[in-house]
Amino acid sequence: MNRRFALLGLSALVLAPAAYAQQTPVILEGAARAEGLALANRSLNAFQRLQGRFVQTSPGGGRASGTFYLQRPGRMRFQYDPPATLLIVSDGNVVSLRDTELRTTERTPLRSTPLNLILGQTINLERDARVLRVSRAGQWLMVTARDRRGQTDGQIALQFYGPNAELRSWDVIDATGARTRITLSDITQPASFDRNLFRIEDVLPNRRR
Question: What is the pLDDT of residue 206?
Fold first, then answer.
């Protein structure tokens, strides 16, 4: 599994991509575009915590699954199922990718990853990102954006479903056009999380073993 894709990518609801892939998206402009962005912002600001399952599809077609935890602002945990040996944790400032098999940890600032756009205290895609495209396909709303400040390579394409524009999946597209998809399912909104979920130190294996 490509670590760079795993770190930047992270995917939602297995039915989501196929559901709109057979429809031709209509690019929204003017008032319809503004309405679509406002709906996406309301959806992303409506939750403080999300928990559920994810499926990640890499550019080469490889698949991995696991459990995710998101807490705004800035915190996340993507815990991969075996045989994958990856754990991705953001403490609000730094994203750490731990490979328990190789016993390595890679770190990058959260602001340098596309997920920074959906983990802010208050999310405003038009203000915080350079929105490249807003489109619809049936009940699906898609927003493609990139970092306005240029600190992140590539783009993130967010996919929302239904009248309340529930976040169902996202794609991370790197500078070469390679696409990593994250699909979410079994989503709940817990009242609280154990703070240790977002501390990589608490999950490192004992080096003396």
Answer: 45
| Three-state secondary structure readout of 173-207 | ECCCCCEEEEEEEEEECCCCCCHHHHCHHHHCCCC
Q: Which residues contact 160 (CB under 8 A, 6 or more apart)?
A: 39, 40, 43, 140, 141, 142, 143, 166, 167, 168
Write out pLDDT tens, residues 55-68: 999 888 889 999 99
Q: What is the mean pLDDT of the chain?
A: 84
Residue 20 has pLDDT above 60, yes or no: no
Domains and CATH numbers, the chain: 3-16+23-187 (2.50.20.10)
DSSP string, 29-49: -HHHHHHHHHHHHHHHHS-SE
Alpha-carbon gap, residue 27 to 86, rounded angstroms: 37
Angstrom distance (rounded) from CA 189 to CA 179: 28
